[in-house]
UniProtKB/TrEMBL annotation:
It is an enzyme of class 5 (isomerase). This is Uronate isomerase. InterPro entries: Metal_Hydrolase (IPR032466), Uronate_isomerase (IPR003766). Keywords: Isomerase. It comes from the Bacteria. Its EC number is 5.3.1.12. One of its GO terms (molecular function) is glucuronate isomerase activity. Pathway: Carbohydrate metabolism; pentose and glucuronate interconversion. GO terms for biological process: D-galacturonate catabolic process; D-glucuronate catabolic process. It holds the Pfam family UxaC. NCBIfam families: PRK02925.1. It catalyses: aldehydo-D-galacturonate = keto-D-tagaturonate; D-glucuronate = D-fructuronate.
């Protein structure tokens, strides 16, 4: 289905150079330092249930596009929060996808899906409404084979590190099972990531109840602000014991605020009592980012900051199906002023490492690249979510490289729940980088040997170092 030269430059000279550079990255192990694969998938190693529940139901890129054309998520098998009826027939869901496949022309979803169908499952026929059942049956047959169970695919995908993402309230049973099995794939490992958003956002429904759960889990008194901080430190230590090397923070804004312990305690008490205003909640979230940076100085977790998503913008979708089903929208984000309190306090401390992501492309040249070039603690994360497309990846290299260079970036992250798409997404990034570097070589701005070294660094060595996945990193 896919030509071997896909995504390489059309200009013949650059295409030939890109092919040569891609060869240096193509077979390097995959480093996946930020993603959302459920670790239970690998811990239990059960067969995938059917093609629809592998490709459609959990993929909000897919369900969002179909919903935009009037196909409700319930018809695509997306669970409802109130238990109301949704489609359960995998074949019917798959047919809906195939019959509407033209909606995905030009999108990364189509590219990823076709690469998975071709590279992972060996299918060669383009998907359409006429062959939907035939392809569904072929996929179902393969999914029943031992070679297509999650652990076998993990090994075949050549994944060296796969980071999942869990709340501090997660007791990490799946990771414990993987450790007890002594399993991470030959030469690979599965680690967790500390994601505390639901415990530092008083605006998030159920926040006080989750804080109480934190106290029960740690056996510490979270009725006081110092006790709350100690409980978070306790969970960070447990995550590090389970292999975590980073934390992840998905706040609406990048705001940071350095409060005194007394002022922070006042905000915490107000929030626990249900009296915090919206401004109080934002101040508490901003202050906690600084607190987490301070904790990172002690325990070494790399901070990842993902601001700029207005969550649950589609209220009807949220009420029917809950969070993380395609109802979030990017928003403009300020980094220069928002991050200054944190950077004033710790930005030049060699122990701190922060990876910054954005959904607002306008800030790559104006804010993020200069910031990464000005503070040793900062690295630019890969284009994320709405931007991890071929064009988004190209624009990132074009807008960030002249100011930040390559080595103030942190490599590619797949940021996916769709396990089988991981190699496809990494391959897309490696091909885009090959094309970008090929232009520099063709324009005599970079020698070929340096470009070859650079693409290997971007694909493999940089993410290992930045996310502290190797010794002395």
């Amino acid at each position: 289905m896919i030509d071997e030269n896909h995504l390489f430059p059309a200009e013949p000279t650059q295409r030939q150079i890109a092919r040569e550079l891609y060869r240096h990255a193509k077979d390097l192990p995959l480093i996946s330092p930020h993603g959302h694969v459920d670790p239970v998938l690998l811990a239990d190693d059960q067969p995938f249930p059917d093609p629809a529940r592998l490709f459609v139901v959990p993929d909000h890129y897919v369900t969002r596009m179909l919903a935009s054309q009037g196909i409700p998520p319930a018809r695509l098998g997306v669970p409802s929060v109130d238990g109301s009826a949704v489609e359960t027939d995998g074949r019917a869901i798959w047919r809906l996808l195939a019959e509407n496949w033209k909606l995905f022309r030009g999108t990364p979803s189509r590219l990823w899906t076709e690469k998975v169908l071709s590279d992972v499952f060996g299918l060669t026929k383009p998907l359409n409404g006429q062959n939907a059942d035939e392809i569904y049956d072929e996929l179902s047959a393969r999914l029943a084979e031992p070679e297509f169970r999650p652990r076998a695919l993990f090994t075949r995908f050549n994944i060296e590190v796969l980071a999942t993402t869990e709340s501090p309230l997660d007791e990490l049973h799946a990771h414990a099972k993987l450790a007890a099995d002594g399993w991470g794939g030959p030469g690979g490992r599965v680690i967790t990531t500390f994601r505390p958003d639901n415990l530092v956002d008083p605006d998030w429904p159920g926040w006080a109840e989750r804080v109480a759960q934190l106290g029960e889990l740690t056996g510490l008194d979270v009725g006081t602000y110092p006790g709350f901080l100690n409980a978070l430190r306790s969970r960070r230590a447990a995550f590090i014991e389970a292999g975590a090397t980073s934390s992840d923070h998905g706040h609406l804004t990048a705001a940071t605020l350095l409060l005194s312990d007394a002022d922070a305690a006042v905000l915490y008490r107000k929030a626990l009592g249900g009296g915090a205003t919206g401004a109080d909640a934002e101040a508490f979230r901003a202050h906690m980012l600084v607190e987490f940076a301070k904790m990172s100085l002690d325990d070494g977790l790399v901070m990842q900051l993902h601001p700029g998503s207005v969550r649950n913008h589609n209220e009807a979708l949220y009420q029917r199906h809950g969070r993380d089903v395609g109802g979030d929208i990017p928003s403009a984000t300020d980094y220069v002023h928002a991050l200054k309190p944190l950077l004033d306090a710790y930005g030049t401390d060699p122990r701190l490492r922060i990876v910054l992501y954005t959904l607002d492309e306008t800030v790559f040249t104006r804010e993020l690249a200069p910031l990464a070039g000005g503070y040793p603690s900062l690295y630019l994360g890969a284009p994320w979510w709405f931007l991890d497309s071929p064009e988004g990846l190209r624009r990132f290299r074009e807008t960030a490289t002249e100011t930040a260079g390559f080595y103030n970036t942190s490599g590619f992250v797949d940021d996916t729940r769709a396990f089988c798409s991981i190699p496809a997404r990494h391959d897309v990034a490696r091909r885009i980088d090959a094309g970008f570097l090929a232009r520099l070589v063709a324009e005599h701005r970079l020698p070929l040997d340096e470009a070859a070294e650079t693409i290997a660094d971007l694909a493999y060595h940089l993410p290992k170092r930045v996310f502290r996945l190797e010794k002395n990193s």
